[in-house]
Amino acid sequence: MFSLHGYGPSILEGTFLTIAVALSSLLISMILGIIGALAKLSRSKILQIGAKTYTTIIRGIPDLVLMLLVFFGGQVFINEVAPLVGYDEYIDINPFIAGVCTIGFIFGAYMTETFRGGILAVPAGQLEAGRAYGMKPFQVFTRILMPQMVRHAIPGFGNNWLVMIKTTALVSIIGLDDMVRKAALAAGATRMPFTFYAVVAILFLVITSISVYILNRLESRYSAGVVKA
Amino acid sequence: MDFSIIFGNLDIYLEGLKNTAILVSISLMIGLTLAIPLAVLRTSRNYLVAAPIRAFVYFFRGTPLLIQIFLIYYGLGQFEVFKASVLWPLFKEAYFCALLAFTLNTAAYTTEIIRGAIEGTPHGEVEAAKAAGMSKMLMFRRIILPSAFRRALPAYSNEIIFMLHGSSLASVITIIDITGAARIVNSRFYSPFEAFLTAAVFYLCITFAIIWLVNKLEFRWYAHLRPQDTGTADGGV
Question: What percentage of chain B has pLDDT greater than the value 70?
């Protein structure tokens, strides 16, 4: 049962793609999360409402539906818009880009909440003190807000990351050769679906376990100097 | 965009809505029923009791739901022994496999939620129950579980919504749930926006309905924590 019939390297290739999708989505979601959190905490009503709408709607719709919407809908949209700007050939939407953008966009909403909580956990007096020392807003952000916000945001951030890794399995549905799809192909060829899906399940457990280890290290690093009860 | 396609095919969506509702409600009910004893046993100090539950929770929380569905629906067919067994007619059905995967998945997540709530029981309450001479069974029934449920409700409401969203994966193994309906409409009319936006609206409405219901439930369950109108400014102390 534990012979992979030569499909080992192919699965491993898929594993790297899964990790690439997860890391690229993480980057997008973090950028969106920071923007969203700052918008939610800004004084502008319009920004607040915009960010609130974004997080509410995204968290109310399944990932798969959004991904299919972006993948199939994006295809139609691009091919309707392209001729208008004078491009006549048919454009195929890249499943990697569709997948990464969708996952990044979805988790941007979750990151917004995480970062917002982290920012709120930093005592306002410290930011005022920073300004009183004559720091520019950017300096207050990088020197005082960020280092402390990270500590409060890490547990939520870690949860989002672990959920996100598992969400990447969905990109196999829109035809990206991640490890789930590689396993499906191998399972079809060898008639050993259980073996290959079990291997992928174990690989997911390995990735999440390593992530948990790194996140714990990060948390203790950023909690240096914090007295625990 | 032409939403007349949707109105012409509303029956497919209603069929999908029915299947989504059945899948989600049944798996949540069985999952919760399984999770309560599992969570109680998980807090046991006996390693032989706690370890298998830990492994179960670790596996189902650490792997994607999609893989769990594939393992059950496609995977089990690999074993000739299993194919010859009396269970095979059940496991041949996509519907049963989806239901089983969802149930085990939500059971694992719920076990962890309730375990956290049980471990959050104030120590004094447990001591008081012991001092009053309650047996372990009685203590769980009267003291620990009722307050644990109250503490678990916010996290459990998230789990309900995750399960609703996770149920969209049933469409991958040919079941016509809401997402499945959208995929049919999309492939029939090549109208992805109309098809998937309609599905999104269905899910949004269900999500909001769940949040509304949970808020009502919270209002009832936390009644004793609400500021009470005692008629006097000092609260009658």
Answer: 96
Interatomic CA distance for residues A203 and A196, integer angstroms: 11
Residue A190 identity (one-letter amino acid): T
**Dist. CA B189–CA B32, nearest whole Å:** 40
User: Given this model, what pLDDT does residue B234 score?
Assistant: 55
CA–CA distance, A149 with A142 (Å, rounded to integer): 10
User: Are the C-beta atoms of residues A111 and A29 closer than 8 Å to each other?
Assistant: yes
Rounded-to-integer distance, Cα B76 and Cα B72, Å: 6
Q: A57 and B204: CB-CB below 8 Å?
A: yes
B195 HSE (CA, 13 A, CB side): 25
The C-alpha atoms of residue B59 and residue B101 are separated, in whole angstroms, by 12
φ, ψ for residue B28 (rounded to 5)? -65, -40
The sign of the torsion formed by the CA atoms of B178, A204, A198, B162 equals negative
In terms of Cβ atoms closer than 10 Å to its own Cβ (0-12, 13-18, 19+), residue B237 is exposed
Judge: A193–B199 Cβ closer than 8 Å, yes or no.
no
* Whole-number Å distance between alpha carbons of A223 and A7: 43
Residues 13-72 of A with CB under 8 A from B: 57, 59-66, 68-69, 72
Q: Is the pLDDT of residue B183 over 50?
A: yes
Which chain B residues have a beta carbon less than 8 Å from that of A172?
66
All domains of chain A in start order, with CATH: 8-222 (1.10.3720.10)
Do A32 and A101 meet the contact criterion of CB atoms below 8 Å apart? Answer: no
- Does A57 contact B62 at a Cβ distance shorter than 8 Å? no
For residue B179, what is the nearest residue in chain A, using CA coordinates?
A65
Minimal C-alpha gap between B204 and chain A (Å): 5
Contact: A65, B203; criterion CB under 8 Å: yes
Please name the residues in contact with A32: beta carbons below 8 A apart, sequence gap of 6 or more.
Answer: A104, A105, A108, A109, A111, A112
- Cβ–Cβ of B207/A60 closer than 8 Å? yes
Residue among A59, A61, A187 minimizing CB distance to B74: A187
ipTM beyond cut 0.90: no
pLDDT digits (tens, 9 = 90+) for A26-49: 999 999 999 999 899 888 999 999
**What does the H/E/C string look like for A137-184?**
HHHHHHHHHHHHHHHHHHHHHHHHHHHHHHHHHHHHCCCCCCHHHHHH
Q: Which helix (H) or strand (E) holds B211?
A: helix B192-221
- Cα of B113 to nearest chain A Cα, Å: 14
DSSP classification of residue B196: H
A–B interface: beta-carbon pairs under 8 A: 114
